[in-house]
Structure formats: C-alpha cells, structure tokens
Design a protein that fits this description.
The chain has 400 residues and is an alpha/beta fold. Helix content is 31%, strand content 21%. Strands 7-6-5-4-3-2-1-8 form an eight-stranded parallel beta sheet. Helix 3 runs parallel beside helix 4 and helix 5 packs across helix 6. The protein binds alpha-D-galactopyranose (GLA). The site of alpha-D-galactopyranose has 10 residues, from loops. This is Alpha-galactosidase. Its EC number is 3.2.1.22. It is an enzyme of class 3 (hydrolase).
C-alpha cells in the first residue's frame, strides 16, 4: 500500500502536532514543580504584626493607628510596609454562604475599608488564616475546605499578605492543606505574599519555596533571651534553603516588648537581619522608646537584611558561648555578627578562613551599631571584645 503526497503531508502535520503537545506537557509539569510564582519577597518582607504585643486584643482603630505610626516614625520609609493583622479578626462563624465575616464589635467598618486606609498611607495590608478548621485561638474559622472562597475574599478586599497557620487541621497531611491555598491565591490573580506558618514541624525549608514566600522554622517565640536565641539556632540549620522569593522565618520580632535588655534586643535584630529573616515588628509602634526605634530603625542593619544577594548567614564558628555568624553581601562584602552568649565579656575573633574572605585580603570594617568605619584595617582576622549577652555587627569591604 503506497502513500499519496496528501497522506505524507497529513502524517508530517500530525507528528509536528504531537511534538508540540509533548513540549506543552513538559512545560506544564515543569511549572507544577512550583505552584507559587507571584514575584513577591525578592528581599525578606518587612512590616508589623499584631500578635506578639496584642494577641487577640485587636481592632480596626489599632490597625489604623499602627499604619499612621509606621509613617510618622519614619519606619515605613525604611521599608516596613506590611501591616499584618494576626488571629481573632473574624466572627466565630461564617455567613450563610460560607464567607468570612469580620468581627462586628472590633472591625465594624470591615477589612476592605481598612485595606483602603492602609493603602492610602502607601502601605500594604496582611491578614491571617489557618490550614485547618479553626485558627489557633479557636475564636474564628480556618480556611480548610474554603480555600478558594477565602482567597477570593482576601483578593477582593485588597489583601497583600497572608499568614497561614497550622492549628486544628484534623490530622490531614500538610500537602493536602497548604498547596490548596497556594493554588487558590494564584488563581485570584492578585499577588499576595504567602507566609507559611507550619512551625518547622515537617522541615518546611525543604518544600516551602514551592508553596510560599516564607516558612516558619520554629514554634512561637516569646519575649526572652532563651526563646530568641534558640529560634535563631533552629533557623540557622536551614540557611541553604533561603533565597530571593522564599525565606526561612524564625518568627516575629520581640524588640520593644520589654522582656530583654537593650543589648539582647540588639542581638535579636542583628541575628534576624543577617539571617535574612522577615523583619516583622512585634511591639506597639505607637508608643515606642527611642532605644527601640534606634534598633528597628537601624538603616545599616536593615540594608544587610535587604541586600539583593539574599544569602542567609551561617554560624561559621562556635567556641562555647562565643559565636561568629557570617554571610556574603553583594559587591564582595561580608556581613558578620560576633555574638557573646555568655554572661561575661570576652574577645571574639573572626578568621577570614571561617567567614569566607580570601587569605591576605585587607578589609575595612564598618561597625553597624556604632555607625563608624574603624580606622584600623584588618588582614586575615579581626578580634573584638564583646560584652555579655551582646554582639557587634560589621560589614567588611575588601580593599585589595
Ligand atoms: C500560632 C502562631 C502564632 C500566632 C498564633 C495566633 O501560635 O504560630 O504566630 O499566629 O497562632 O493564635
């Protein structure tokens, strides 16, 4: 049986179609490897969240005044743009059509009006829900089973950031819960920063970047030195997994809440910054002390956090309670934190070998807390004396 010219043309056409189809399928499965492509979180997110200071005692006036204070204190200009409402903003029950209802006694104007207000200040509004049947407070519903409805609601309100918690999940596997919300958010077409709050239970650093823009690596922080440093340690283990678009999250800042000394809060902020952690202020920014503002408003430390390279620092050397944390910055610079976790002062040495600077390199050192460039230049190592429960933070710039 012979083929006519027409048969051959048809066959060629069909085989071209099949090849094209195979390419489409390949592209499809490639894109499914990452459900999230919202272009957000190119540097770690910066903003404020209600939980650490106010827990469930929140209302729309507080949120508005916080937005005002972020602007009037200059924090907004420094990059703190997200105003994030945490748990307890909704009524216990959904409406008859299954939609979230903002709590009438505390958010009488609704969330859309609040978003408009926050946007009018040049800021962004974040909200909170849970990959379970109820949130952690158990005072409002979670989004499990309502993912698309809730994502659409958030988008229609003008929400810019969603923190998604892990309580009351009925024992369902996280892969049956979190990706649903990632997809739902993507389907809304509104770029919404997606913050996974899975507490580090199932090593979210290993899978978080496919689903979210940040992932909690720890259980909840509290306003104490022990809690803070232990979260820093747990988060450090996953340094390799942080990168632009997806960040390890050791939980929100406690700076300004009163449970630590000023030096301890400086350690807290320095380690969060160098670890490329989200910088989410957790104090009452309407009533801050000068000391608190000097910490969270330190431009040079913020610049380390927001450096475009987006590489999380590691603890490169540890001798008992004396530690060296270091990470590369753009422009061949290196950020270091020399941390003394003991209760007595001690010198700490950063060796170029440990912090990744080539031998014989001469560097200039900028002290980010004293805001001064040291006169002395350093080669191969740098030794600095550090107070108890304190740190010093430097950016080292090679001169040769
Ligand atoms: C969990 C989260 C906290 C906070 C509370 C709210 O504990 O980890 O950050 O959101 O829930 O109930």
């Amino acid at each position: 049986m012979g083929f006519s010219l027409q048969d051959i043309v048809v066959l060629l056409f069909l085989s071209a179609l099949m090849k094209a189809d195979a390419r489409v399928t390949a592209v499809d499965s490639e894109s499914k490897r990452t459900l999230l492509a919202n272009g957000l979180g190119i540097t770690p997110p910066m903003g404020w969240n209600s939980w650490n200071h106010f827990s469930c005692f929140i209302n729309e006036t507080l949120i508005r005044e916080t937005a005002d204070a972020l602007v009037s204190t200059g924090l907004a200009e420094l990059g703190y743009q997200y105003v994030n409402i945490d748990d307890c903003w909704a009524e216990q029950n959904r409406d008859s059509e299954g939609y979230f209802v903002p709590k009438k006694s505390t958010f009488p104007s609704g969330i859309k009006a609040l978003a408009e207000y926050v946007h009018s200040k040049g800021l962004k509004l974040g909200i909170y829900s849970d990959a379970g049947y109820l949130t952690c407070s158990q005072k409002m519903p979670g989004s499990l089973g309502y993912e698309q409805k809730d994502a659409d609601t958030f988008a229609s309100w003008g929400i810019d950031y969603l923190k998604y918690d892990n309580c009351n999940n009925g024992g369902l596997k996280l892969m049956e819960r979190y990706p649903r919300m990632t997809r739902a958010l993507m389907r809304t077409g509104r770029p919404i920063f997606f913050s996974l709050c899975e507490w580090g239970d199932m090593h979210p650093a290993l899978w978080g970047a496919k689903l979210g823009n940040s992932w909690r690596t720890t259980s909840d922080i509290n306003d104490s030195w022990e809690s803070m440093v232990s979260r820093a340690d747990q988060n450090e283990v996953y340094a390799e997994y942080a990168r632009p678009g997806g960040w390890n999250d050791p939980d929100m800042l406690e700076v300004g809440n009163g449970g630590m000394t000023n030096d301890e809060y400086i350690v807290h902020f320095s380690i969060w910054a160098i670890s490329k952690a989200p910088l989410l202020i957790g104090c009452d920014v309407r009533n801050m002390t000068r000391e608190t503002m000097d910490i969270i408003g330190n431009k040079e430390v913020i610049a380390v956090n927001q450096d475009p390279l987006g590489i999380q620092a590691k603890k490169v050397r540890m001798e008992g309670d004396l530690e060296v944390w270091a990470g590369p910055l753009s422009g061949y610079k290196t950020a270091i934190v020399l941390l003394n976790r003991s209760l007595k002062p001690s010198p700490i040495t950063a060796n170029w070998d440990d912090i990744g600077i080539p031998p014989k390199t001469v560097v200039e050192a900028r002290d980010l807390w004293k805001h001064e460039t040291l006169k002395k230049k350093f080669m191969d190592k740098m030794t600095v004396s550090i107070g108890p429960h304190s740190c010093r933070m430097f950016v080292l710039t090679p001169l040769s």
